């Protein structure tokens, strides 16, 4: 009996040993696969330190010079740049000034072009876009220190990041604008003062770009430049706006909210009874089936309001209902990118997210050494988004899609609208519907409204990646949707953003 037991244990031990060996072999194979997979994504970084050598003759330029080897926490040379405060007019008593940071093109960039970038808000700093989206170095969420940005837009051309309007970031003065026409006049005034100092940039081809509320800013600035052709010695070619504010809240957030939850049911993880409540609200508020009925190619006419409000009728604010429930399920839920869960990665800027999350104080741009390095006022407490209303009595302008955007599309060589499909604060399907609407007054194509042919699935092909969403072009407008990307497309899908910007500038044939 004992002999049999020993034999049985021996056999069992052999089997267990074999199983363990198979497990170890499996782990070894897995590691080999991981190593091999990593090799596929190794890229030779684009150079960031050897920018084109631009010299500026105006002695005033030297006071804005930033040594690329002396930027705090950046342990590599980012090359020369210029930053500081610039007044919005030539009036010697002018107190309103905008803060800028200008970089010349990297070795692959064009000397004939200039990209203007602004963030949204209104009142949110363009230094967020600089540091975490499309600048020559980046300090992304969860990253221990700044790193070179291989997808920097300086690899396309010179880039000018501007904190505007007055009251945003380091920009100084008392906000006094009533609408986006006022804002555009101030930006153009600033640009003229900038070109006075950096005169070698005059006559360049200009591309206006930005995200979020810049969907309001950028079309109005572009329209101002087109309607005042002698106001600025730059040749405006087109605009690029990402996840933009284009129309009414009801269209961009409320109508598509429940459909968005259904699309990402496993992410929201709501139970069936709550889903039934959301569906009932959608029916009651005329949101249900709205997209299928009106998002047609070609469109049947202007989009009607589903109720009486451009925001939401009483009982119909389903977006906030979803947001509150999402935070209960996932306290780390991020309206800017719905896939986020715990742990919440630290952010050197403390925002954006569903809520501010300052894990290290002071914030990077509020450090005295950083302010001194970039010629920012040390007595200003920098926050990513302004604590004051930069439109003292709110923005009186109509949404750009109902006013200036069609004219800007008409006059531009190209216009690109990009939208991340994982963005909840502004939902892509809402932007699709407005994209159909906002071309209503275009003369090109016989005054046709919107896209005449459907947007094809898998039509956005990103180099080295493959299909990553959709892309569609008609009559000067290109609309791009990016899978996996949240609100800040240059941050969440930098290759797609870089490629679509390159398309806007005519450096490639497809977005």
From TrEMBL:
Its EC number is 3.4.16.-. PROSITE patterns: CARBOXYPEPT_SER_HIS, CARBOXYPEPT_SER_SER. This is Carboxypeptidase. Keywords: Carboxypeptidase, Glycoprotein, Hydrolase, Protease, Signal. It comes from Mycena metata. One of its GO terms (molecular function) is serine-type carboxypeptidase activity. GO terms for biological process: proteolysis. InterPro entries: AB_hydrolase_fold (IPR029058), Peptidase_S10 (IPR001563), Ser_caboxypep_his_AS (IPR033124), Ser_caboxypep_ser_AS (IPR018202). Belongs to the peptidase S10 family.
């Amino acid at each position: 009996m004992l002999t049999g037991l020993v034999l049985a244990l021996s056999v069992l031990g052999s089997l267990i040993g074999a199983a363990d060996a198979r497990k170890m072999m499996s782990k070894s194979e897995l590691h080999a696969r991981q190593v091999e997979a990593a090799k596929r994504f190794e890229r030779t970084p684009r150079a960031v330190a050897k920018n084109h050598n631009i010299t500026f003759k105006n002695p005033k330029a030297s006071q804005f010079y930033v040594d690329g080897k002396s930027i705090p926490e950046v342990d590599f040379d980012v090359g020369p740049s210029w930053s500081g405060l610039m007044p919005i007019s030539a009036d010697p008593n002018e107190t309103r000034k905008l803060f800028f940071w200008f970089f010349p093109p990297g070795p692959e960039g064009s000397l004939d072009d200039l990209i203007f970038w602004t963030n949204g808000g209104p009142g949110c700093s363009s230094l967020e876009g600089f540091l975490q989206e499309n600048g020559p170095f980046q300090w992304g969420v969860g990253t221990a220190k700044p790193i070179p940005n291989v997808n920097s837009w300086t690899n396309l051309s010179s880039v000018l990041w501007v904190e505007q309007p007055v009251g945003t970031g380091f920009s100084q003065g008392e906000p006094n604008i009533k609408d986006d026409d006022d804002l555009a006049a101030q930006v153009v005034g600033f640009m003229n003062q900038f070109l006075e100092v950096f005169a070698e940039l005059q006559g360049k081809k200009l591309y206006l770009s930005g995200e979020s509320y810049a969907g309001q800013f950028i079309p109005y600035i572009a329209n101002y430049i087109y309607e005042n052709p002698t106001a600025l010695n730059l040749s405006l070619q087109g605009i690029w706006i990402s996840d933009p504010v284009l129309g009414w809240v009801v269209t961009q957030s409320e109508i598509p909210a429940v459909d968005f939850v259904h699309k990402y049911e496993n992410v929201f993880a709501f139970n069936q009874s709550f889903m039934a409540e959301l569906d009932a609200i959608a029916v009651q508020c005329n949101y249900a089936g709205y997209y299928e009925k009106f998002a047609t190619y070609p469109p049947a006419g202007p989009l009607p309001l589903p109720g009486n409000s451009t925001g939401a009728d009483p009982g119909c604010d389903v977006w906030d209902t979803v947001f509150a429930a999402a935070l209960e399920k996932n306290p780390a839920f991020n309206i800017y990118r719905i896939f986020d869960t715990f742990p919440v990665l630290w952010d050197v800027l403390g925002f954006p997210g569903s809520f501010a999350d300052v894990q290290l104080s002071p914030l990077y741009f509020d450090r005295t050494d950083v302010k001194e390095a970039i010629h920012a006022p040390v007595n200003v407490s920098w926050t990513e988004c302004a604590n004051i209303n930069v439109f003292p009595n709110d923005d009186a302008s109509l949404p750009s899609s109902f006013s200036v955007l069609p004219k800007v599309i008409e006059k531009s060589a190209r216009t690109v609208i990009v939208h991340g499909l994982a963005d909840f604060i502004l939902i892509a399907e809402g932007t699709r519907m407005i994209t159909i609407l906002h071309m209503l007054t275009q003369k090109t194509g016989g005054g046709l409204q919107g896209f005449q042919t459907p947007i094809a699935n898998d039509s956005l092909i990103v180099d080295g990646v493959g299909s990553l969403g959709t892309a569609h072009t008609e009559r000067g407008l290109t609309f791009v949707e990016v899978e996996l990307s949240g609100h800040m497309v240059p941050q969440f899908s930098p290759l797609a953003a870089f490629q679509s910007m390159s398309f806007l500038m005519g450096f490639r044939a497809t977005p």
